[in-house]
Amino acid sequence: MDEKQHDILPPTREEADQMWGNILSNIRKREREKKKSKIITYSVAASVAILILIGSIFGYNTYIRPDIYTAEMAALKIVLPDHSLVILSKGSILKVEKSFPSDTRDVYLDGDAVFRVAKSKEHPFIVHGKGYETKVLGTVFKVSQSGKTFKVDLFEGKVLVYRTAHPKDPVTLAPKQTFTNFGISEAASVSQTADLPSATTKNKSAALSFTECPINDAISVIEKAYGIKVHYPTEIENTKITITTPNVLAETFVQTLALQLNLNIRKNNDSTFELEK
């Protein structure tokens, strides 16, 4: 029995074009679906990232970011969470951590302010200034800062003032005393607050401290602290001194300085002294 032979004819040009068109159409469709899926995935990821960012910003502003007070146009009155009162001078800025008050009540001052600190023996109140810190348990005082000059006027209670780099060498202030460095970081002066504007030169007293301080800077501080003039040999202008005295009158301090420098002292009048070889 003869088997009937079936010949398979190749597709026509039109059929081949249609087949390829179907194949390309399916490929493009799959690519569009993949692209759409990626867009959705990226969109979801971006949305989640945005929500996380918003949450982080909200959390930072709410729980971490310090509270910043700025006295822009006039003095600003601030009552802190521990009920301490701060009068921030115009142009000054106070930064308070969100953790305030904690083991220590830390605030950061740029400029001038008067503080009436709520008493707490367990939680010291520390004002961080430009290179200096003022530590108290409860008192009323004023911190003034201008350029390199740091000054503390104490009205009530007791405070410790020290350079940030030397916390173990504090200066203790009693009421009505003023601490200032007169713009010299190696120097420290403590005098009666009431003396600064009114007392005569003869009666002015001050406790001064110098640590490796150039003599010209030291003389500048001495003259400002006592309201006097001190002349000294030019050949010692590069000398550095380290000296600390208790609360003494100008003449006593100049005598101590002359002794350390191995110089003689000549007093022209109550406000003028000569240091001579």
Protein topology:
Layout: H1 13-64, E1 67-70, E2 76-79, E3 85-88, E4 93-96, E5 105-110, E6 113-116, E7 125-128, E8 132-136, E9 140-146, E10 149-156, E11 159-163, E12 171-173, E13 177-180, E14 187-192, H2 195-198, E15 205-214, H3 215-226, E16 229-231, E17 240-244, E18 248-249, H4 250-261, E19 264-269, E20 272-276
Describe what this molecule looks like in 3D.
By secondary structure, the protein is α+β, with helices and mostly antiparallel strands. The chain folds into 2 domains: 66-173, Jelly Rolls, CATH 2.60.120; 181-277, Phage tail protein beta-alpha-beta fold (3-Layer(bab) Sandwich), CATH 3.55.50.30. The protein has 4 helices and 20 strands. The chain has helices at 13-64, 195-198, 215-226, 250-261; strands at residues 67-70, 76-79, 85-88, 93-96, 105-110, 113-116, 125-128, 132-136, 140-146, 149-156, 159-163, 171-173, 177-180, 187-192, 205-214, 229-231, 240-244, 248-249, 264-269, 272-276. The strands form 3 sheets. Strands 2, 3, 6, 9, 10, 13, 14, 15, 17 and 18 form a 10-stranded antiparallel sheet that branches. It has a 7-stranded mixed sheet with strand order 1-4-5-7-8-11-12, with no helix packed on it. A hairpin with a 7-residue loop joins β11 (159-163) and β12 (171-173). It is elongated, with a radius of gyration of 38 Å. The mean pLDDT is 84.
